[in-house]
Design goal:
The structure is a single chain. This protein has 358 residues and is mainly alpha-helical. The chain contains 14 helices and four strands. It has helices at residues 13-16, 23-43, 46-72, 80-97, 103-121, 131-150, 182-204, 207-217, 219-224, 229-256, 266-279, 284-307, 314-335, 340-353; strands at residues 163-164, 168-170, 173-176, 258-259. The strands form two sheets. Strands 1-4 form a two-stranded antiparallel sheet. Strands 2-3 form a two-stranded antiparallel sheet. Strand 2 (168-170) and strand 3 form a beta hairpin. Helix 3 packs across helix 11 and helix 4 (80-97) runs parallel beside helix 6. The mean pLDDT is 87.
Length: 358
Amino acid sequence: MFYREAGQFKATYEADQALFPIRQDRVAMGIILAVAFVGVPLLANDFFLTSIMIPFLVFSLAAIGLNILTGFAGQLSLGSGAFMGVGAYAAYKLTSIFPDANVIVLVLISGVFSAGIGAIFGLPSLRIKGLYLAVTTLAAQFFLEWCFIRIPWLYNYNASGAIEIPRREVFGIIVTGAEALPLTRYFIVLSIVVVIAFLVANVIRGRIGRSWMMIRDMDIAAELMGVRPLQTKLLAFGVSSYICGVAGAMMVFFWLNAAEPSSYSITLSFQILFMVILGGLGSIAGSFLGAAFIWILPVFLRFLPGLFGVEVAAESIQHVTFMIVGALIIFFLIVEPHGLARLWQIGKQKLRVWPFPY
């Protein structure tokens, strides 16, 4: 088959430790990036960009952030939606205080506030773990959600209680607000997601990532080997919350244009958690696969009857979509509990040894 390692020799340690050591993987990644940066903008319309691609990228980034904490560091969290809200409200306040600053830079800075809040709520992780830690992060979810509602300063004393994104320009191009073109917002979101995903992939392969995985697998043994549990866990909470905060800021600035506290409710936290579980714990690619499964598949199923000329009521389509997605979730969890990323790895392994069975 075309997926072969034979003849690809590595003469240096750098080549052996490369992010994509196999030529086919590098070619595939180049094709994916070419499709994302060139193919989609040329072929997609505004509806496809606004309703499918931009939210898919935002949720993928949020899933990467939660995957760092839950998949790589082994710390169960149910507060990712609240940390996304911290990033959104922080970015909104920063744009209010610094109206002439680059809004893209402010979106990236907003994750710092989310990281600080995440590290504070990550302090109990030194003493508790598992479901007890999940309850702690759930408390963070409810507390932060209460703050979004009860502290008027966060939404500039708006009578509606919502944050409304003003028009902002970067180098003369409108990037936020109702007048911003979907293609412009898509390029911004895509660029941020690609850069952060690349950085996370390299961090995971280094000393920090190995420390997280050691804590996940056996924290006592990791401590005996010199890994500091408190610093390592707090770093995982901070990095995860930072990425979730940036995703939350992009969600309101480059997709929704306005948001209420309910936009970052416990429902969003569970949605991101399902993306991580279905995509694959401890996998960057799994975060994208899980986000595609949870967000893109239901949208496709809603439009499927219309492609065949079948008229079905909107309510019926929504109910059937929930049933199909729920059944598929159960099916994939039974077939491969390690997620869609594991199925992809098995497929690649089969191609590497084909036509032999092992």
